[in-house]
Amino acid sequence: MTIPANPRRLRRxxxxxxxGLLALAAAALYAVWPRPxxxxxxxxxxxxxxxxxxxxxxxxxxxxxLFRDLYSVWRDEYEFSPVDSMRLAxxxxxxxxxxxxxxxxxxxxxxxxxxxxxxxxLAGGSRVKFDAEDAARTELAWWxxxxxxxxxxxxxxxxxxxxxxxxxxxxxxxRRSGLVRAQAMAYxxxxxxxxxxxxxxxxxxxxxxxxxxxxxxLSARSPRAAI
Length: 227
Fold this sequence. Notes:
Distance between the termini: 78 Å
Number of strands: 0
Largest sheet: none
Radius of gyration: 22 Å
Number of helices: 10
Helix content: over 70%
Strand content: under 5%
Shape: globular
């Protein structure tokens, strides 16, 4: 014996299903809808906190947390779409995870494809055109230099070069920003396994200075004609 369906219940279920499908469609549209990202929009204080957190994630091999913090950087600070923020976070996390166990420059090349992908997506938020592979190789160069215990005075300019590539800006503030960021990294490396909360607070202050210098350089930007 077949029990007849309750028409009122069917109508309620149909309305519920329709609302649910509309909500899913709206969420998907929000995630993929193109929007103007802006690499100059960051807040130096927020970037300092996030970068210090990401360094901790990396050294403690907490890759899920690293992905989360990277997503926050690109979504909240640079205003990329949710989908592009996830793509950037995935590419950067993949590059870091691939690079971490390598022990030579030749092995470190394995991180390059993810870095190229990362900079290609990043180019969508830049006001200047730049070569994603050049930027990726430059980024990888300072990663490796830092690992080889090169003084920050030597790899700070490489960090500054990455900023010049993606922003099209040069000058003393850019160079000082790269140097101070390198000094923060060198400080962390010296502390090693003995790093304390007070050390992380000092690192965050150095990063705040570095991102403040970068922000000032971009506020008075004078892009080069060609990169």
